[in-house]
Design a protein that fits this description.
CATH superfamily: NagB/RpiA/CoA transferase-like
Number of domains: 1
Oligomer: single chain
Structural class: alpha/beta
CATH architecture: 3-Layer(aba) Sandwich
Number of strands: 12
Radius of gyration: 16 Å
């Protein structure tokens, strides 16, 4: 899967810019933006939480699940394989994701780091399949390293400036929303109706 940066921790972070101590501010601001945030110790707990969420939205898994990030993280690949083995269609290949882009209502993806000031996720969506999995489904479930939090947008842009040459990066702050029509807030008009964040403390290799 194409990415703007293959290893954000080694190539972009450093100089104390990324600190776990900003987590509480991120969580507070993410929830204020209508995201749901779940902090877990490891991928085993993350998988258990994911299974809970999939049961909650079981009526939306009939069209299958689009899932990205498994190529870079073996733990995620194992989770995707086990979900598929249980009988739910999980599309990880970019051609399969393209074919089922209109029917899959759940997308599972990853983020590079969190921004405490705004409760945002920085997503490296250079690849087509990552953009589709995060923008088209009704529910977007995002795995992120709970220790990768920056203080504000200025720091986030400094980090991005170290590695960006070409591609597609974005900041995701809560589910899609608009108030264009009579100033009435609506969710899910231009993207996912639900943003569910699973923050893993021990993210392991391949992050």
């Amino acid at each position: 899967m194409e990415k703007v940066c293959r290893d954000w921790a080694k190539q972009a972070f450093g100089e104390g810019l990324v600190k776990a101590e900003y987590w509480n501010d991120f969580e507070t601001n993410a929830k204020a933006a209508a995201a749901e945030v779940f902090r877990v110790k490891n991928f085993a707990e993350g998988e258990a939480k994911l299974q809970e969420l999939l049961k909650e939205y079981a009526d939306r898994t009939g069209g299958g699940i689009m899932a990205v990030g498994g190529e870079e993280n073996p733990a995620l690949k194992g989770i995707y394989d086990r979900i598929a083995a249980s009988g739910t269609a999980v599309y990880t290949d970019k051609f399969d994701i393209y074919e089922h882009r209109a029917t899959a209502d759940i997308g599972i993806s990853t983020a590079e780091f969190c921004v405490a000031e705004t409760g945002s996720l920085c997503v490296d969506n250079y690849s087509y399949e990552a953009r589709v999995a995060t923008m088209l489904p009704y529910v977007n479930i995002v795995f992120v390293n709970a220790n990768y939090v920056v203080e504000n947008v200025s720091v986030a842009c400094k980090i991005i400036g170290r590695v960006f040459d070409k591609g597609y990066l974005g900041f995701v702050t809560g589910p899609s929303r608009t108030a264009d029509i009579e100033r009435v807030l609506s969710l899910g008009v231009h993207g996912p109706n639900k943003l569910l964040i699973i923050a893993v403390e021990d993210f392991g290799e391949g992050n």
